[in-house]
Amino acid sequence: MKALLLVDIQNGFCPGGNLPVPDGDKVVPVANRLIDSGKYDLIVASQDWHPPGHGSFASAHPGAVPFEMGELSGKPQMMWPDHCVQGTLDAELHPALQSEEIDLIQQKGENPKIDSYSAFRDNDRDASTGLSDFLEDQGVTDLDVCGLATDYCVKFSALDALEMMPGIRVRFIEDASRGITPEGVAAAIDEMRAHGIAIIDSAKALAG
């Protein structure tokens, strides 16, 4: 049973969004080719879905500046611009993404007191979204992961899949993903590879 996880391919992380990843929209046509390929038994997407005033927003902390380290619930936290607020255009999946083919949209980041990069659990590694249980119930044995951003939500989703679903095979599709910084992307790829996640491109994914 083979599944594709599309991580946070939302307006907020694409050009024109509140937290744009450089060339974030370039992943959409690649993701659509993967969706259309017929290679996957199941297609899942994650969706950052923050309440207004989420604790990861710099605006929720007087004097804080986006992209500096702060604190949330007693732990270090990157301060982000307000993004992907529930019910806003910024939070919607990219309009060109073939979302009608997606079997499940897993929302995350709803607890205002903790951030959630991973599609599988909050950053405190305590509260699960339920995605791992869903995939296991479906009998998923192989998971390809891609989307936005490589150095944050994609990396943590791939690593958590590996840890929370013993025996699953995980691959990261590099050209269907974009990151915030080149240095961050390189470090994320090294970390995923070190944990046994295969680094592939969409051509290999489409080949089987």
Quick overview of this protein structure:
The chain is α/β, with parallel strands linked by helices and 208 residues long. It has five helices and eight strands; from the N terminus they run E-H-E-E-E-E-H-E-H-E-H-E-H.
Provide a descriptive summary of the structure in words.
The protein has 208 residues and is an alpha/beta fold. It has a single domain, classed as Rossmann fold, CATH 3.40.50. It is built from 5 helices and 8 strands, in the order βαββββαβαβαβα. It has helices spanning 27-36, 131-137, 150-164, 182-194, 202-207; strands at residues 2-7, 42-48, 69-72, 75-78, 104-108, 142-147, 169-173, 198-200. The strands form 2 sheets. It has a 6-stranded parallel β-sheet, with helices on both faces. Helix 1 (27-36) links the parallel strand 1 and strand 2 (42-48). Helix 3 (150-164) packs parallel to helix 4. It is globular.
**What percentage of amino acids are in beta strands?**
15-25%
Share of residues in helices: 10-25%
CATH architecture grouping: 3-Layer(aba) Sandwich
Largest β-sheet summary: 6 strands, parallel
What's the CATH H-level superfamily name?
A: Isochorismatase-like
Tally of separate domains: 1
